[in-house]
UniProtKB/TrEMBL annotation:
Organism: Meloidogyne incognita
Protein name listed in UniProt: Serpentine Receptor, class T
Keywords (A to Z) from UniProt: Membrane, Transmembrane, Transmembrane helix
One Pfam short name: 7TM_GPCR_Srt
Matching PANTHER family: SERPENTINE RECEPTOR, CLASS T
Length: 371
């Protein structure tokens, strides 16, 4: 986002659609209707079951700082779930690429950057919290209790803001059914390049030239190159983004197993003491966090692989995309299945709604009877 904030001239070059006719690539090649409809349906399934879980976390937030982290993580999940479900589904049904909807795809991409980075960071911190809580409770008290958990939440937000401000946004591309750094992947052989004016020329004398752009087959389809002659500097920018993205996903994919492996060793050497001190509820919360972290790990591996191996067809892309959906959509299923507290609070909440509905229905019936 730094280009649009402080470097508008470069932004106009990188995100330049001048001379591009989107319809040169038929809309049939930019649409995946079956996958898109499944994504939208999953969004409608997952969203409603999130809210009773958040209600339960909020109700128990003072019991343990992990509930505050779960509230924060759930809010991030709710904020990002619409991207791989509703957004990707609607974009795909309409054959959207950057040049068909530049404003909406750019805004969606910026939201994706912030939410994804913050969510991954929060997931790692939650895993550390759960492991410390069970293996080293004194250290956990020092790091997370007495509102210190909010320091970690602020850190997650700052990390997300770094990605939002200093990394090119992910732009949805209907050709590959994924979000990419390079907004102009897959266009035909030519486009109009806006060339930076020579010294002494006014803005009105900016030169516009027709320059050949590399085709989808001739360049890396993940943003390692940039269309047009003399644009290597911007291609390097996408390479740097890809490098940071790969490092981020590698840390996520490797870090979570390392954290839980260390915890497993601690459990092995302190098994009797841990079993005596850890409640059943804490054990179940740990299992839930572990499963969610493994979803993040598998998706991070899939996306890192696809970003660095772009020519393996649509199937790996679909696997990565639907794994991404499960990261943000499946947690409430895990909570409702494995967390007795969440299940109990959900039953109470639905009982209240049912009683309220029944009371209102009786009032309406009595009013109709009097008339």
């Amino acid at each position: 986002m730094e280009y649009i904030l402080w470097n508008r001239k470069e932004f106009d070059i990188i995100y330049n659609c001048t001379g591009i006719n989107v319809d040169d690539i038929p809309i049939e090649k930019r649409r995946y209707p079956i996958a898109a409809i499944i994504c939208i349906l999953l969004g409608f399934i997952y969203y409603p079951i999130y809210f009773p879980c958040i209600y339960s976390f909020w109700k128990n937030r003072n019991k343990n700082p992990c509930y505050k982290l779960l509230i924060y993580l759930s809010i991030l999940d709710i904020g990002i779930l619409w991207l791989p479900t509703f957004s990707a589904g609607i974009f795909s049904l309409n054959g959207v690429v950057y040049c068909t909807s530049p404003i909406s795809t750019y805004i969606v991409g910026c939201a994706c950057l912030f939410l994804w980075a913050a969510e991954c960071c929060a997931d790692m911190i939650l895993g550390i919290n759960r492991c410390l809580e069970m293996a080293f409770p004194n250290i956990s008290n020092i790091l997370f209790y007495n509102n210190r958990v909010y320091i970690w939440i602020i850190f997650c937000n700052l990390y997300g803001l770094y990605w939002l401000i200093f990394i090119h946004p992910y732009i949805f591309n209907g050709l590959t059914f994924e979000y990419l750094f390079d907004p102009l992947i897959g266009y035909k052989d030519f486009r109009m390049e806006l060339v930076t004016p020579r010294p002494g020329l006014g803005e009105s004398q900016k030169i516009t030239q027709l320059r050949p752009a590399l085709t989808l087959q001739d360049r890396d389809c993940r943003g390692l190159g940039f269309a047009g002659v003399g644009m290597s500097g911007f291609g390097a920018g996408f390479k740097e983004d890809l490098r940071k993205f790969t490092i981020h996903n590698t840390i996520l994919a490797v870090g979570s197993p390392i954290i839980y492996s260390i915890f497993s060793l601690c459990v092995f050497f302190k098994a009797r003491e841990l079993i005596d001190n850890v409640s059943k509820e804490e054990k179940m919360v740990f299992i839930q966090v572990f499963i969610i972290s493994m979803f993040n790990t598998s998706s991070a591996f899939a996306y890192a692989y696809n970003m660095n191996h772009p020519d393996h067809g649509i199937f790996p892309l679909m696997v990565a995309h639907f794994a991404w959906i499960q990261i943000h959509g499946f947690p409430p299923v895990i909570y409702l299945t494995l967390n007795k507290t969440v299940r109990t609070d959900t039953k109470i909440l639905f009982g209240k709604f049912f009683s309220l509905f029944k009371t209102n229905q009786n009032k309406v019936s009595s009013m109709v009877g009097h008339t």
